[in-house]
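Researcher: Last one for today. Full complex below.
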Amino acid sequence: MAAGLLTYPAFGSAFSFSDSKDIIVGHNSHRYKVDLNWGNLNPLKTPVNDCHEMVQDSKGRIVLLTNEIKNNVIVYDKSGKLIETWGTDYPGAHGLTLVKENGKDFLLITDYERHQIIKTTIDGKVVFTLDYPADITAYRSKGDYRPTETAVTENGDIYVADGYGKQFILHYNYKGELQNYFGGAGNENDKFLNAHGICYDNRDAKNSSLLITARELNQLKRFSLQGEYLETINVPGALICRPVIHEKDIYFAVLRSKNSIYEDSGFVLIMNEKNEVVSCPGATAPSYKNNQLDELYQTIRLFQHPHDVCVDDDENMYVAQWNSGKTYPIKLTRI
Amino acid sequence: MKKLLVVFCCCFLFNCSEKKEQASTSFLKNNTLELAPPRVVAPSTIIDSIVTVNAELKMEGVTIRYTYNGEEPTENSMLYQNSLELSKEGKYKFKAFHQDWKPSATSEIELFKKGIKPQAFLFKTEASKVYPGIGKGTLFNNKKASLAFKDIQWLGYDTTTVAVVDFKTSVAIKKITIGYLVDTKSWIFPPEKVSVIINEEDSVSVVIPKFKEGEYKRLNSVKIPINKVVETLKIKVVNSRLPDWHPGASNGAWLFMDEWIFN
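Model: Here's the assembly. Have a good evening.
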């Protein structure tokens, strides 16, 4: 076991320091400086509760979703300056997905307390809402439906992950008509425990698919757009929240380290285009033995409960945190 | 399965009260954040002959130092290099150090000498049906539980526990160690008091100090000095009530025990 201290992982050094003594976190190709002051606002005027998810819109602005109903949506510029806020009707604001339609930005807000998906314009006007899937017999009432995330394909189809509910993935067309559903609760390949996040993966345009986290299982699962199970990618020790694809890489906020005895043991995880973990800011350096990833865990007390990451067009990252003392996001500047 | 047995403390707050008006960037500097506490793992914490304890914090440049005299490890404490083969009972404390990070909180593991197994035991009160452990033998099977209250090595009581243990012959007992769980968020608290009647003649009691307001999750134990030749012991473990500061104040607390060790 002490070998962990003596034998360093195959992937480069875990942490290093520049002359200026700014700390650097992460490994290999993805290393960052840390700005804890980014986006800090006056909590009396613009408070946050849980910072659940973030996206960057077409204008380059950083859009944060919080379940603080004084201002559910906070829009920043990349420097962390407040641009605007809106939204007071989303007590269970959890999932935030950017949808681009004919050059125009829209948002899909997943609200597990309202048991609804709400499509809005980028400035907060409601376009439509999707209610609980009453046609599926597994759902006896709206209370059974506690969705956490959406993903949208080029043709406007919407996939909803019912991550705090029945663990189904619901497939709607652009009009909001239910087309299919799959998944459900369980340990089996095609099932989920905490189907918390979902994204549309078209990095391989000929074989586009869905990536879905099974957070409690520390797994990322790939499904076809028709809902067939394709593969599982194991990330031992990491409770991954949602996959976020940026260029060829996948970024994840990790809520907790599985076997930590303290709760606030989260970190950030990055996979390359081969879905290999290459960097874990705040945690152990990724290392593989016989193609099996070693268990990952928090090594520095930087993050508490990361819940989502957003990667901007400068390759910098913003980390939104759940249950972390009502703190604003942390910015990681890539070096 | 290996148990992960670590006790830690940490306090971590971000300064979020000041609005940042300018777009200037201030990056985090060296020695402003703590390392995470080392992971300390042992296959068992009950020593038959020897227990192997491993500590790690897999990060370049980290050293781990440890003590077994109850003191907090410092940079001058013994350097952890390889697995420790331990035969001495007590509390072992580990801390991680790195030149560019603040030292970690302390991880702790307590090892216990294997005790004498009673020949018979009779419980006068029943454990909760929800947390029956692996039956009445749970407290005498030389198996300690993990921090997870659902671990089947925990026997859960919502009443006072009363049991008579019988060695069927005279044995010299120095002390009894009662292992219990603290998980305040799950309403699991230390017992209020342990009383032992020795051979139906003498008695000894130990009162357990109460926690101040806060959230605690740890493995703990209380030791009751006996120092007598005994045949039977009547043991009464009084479960506490939730303190005033707890959200469930005035309700009875849960009492979770994993092992009664007779040395």
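Chain B touches chain A through 49 residues (CB under 8 Å). Chain B has two domains: 3-113, 120-262.
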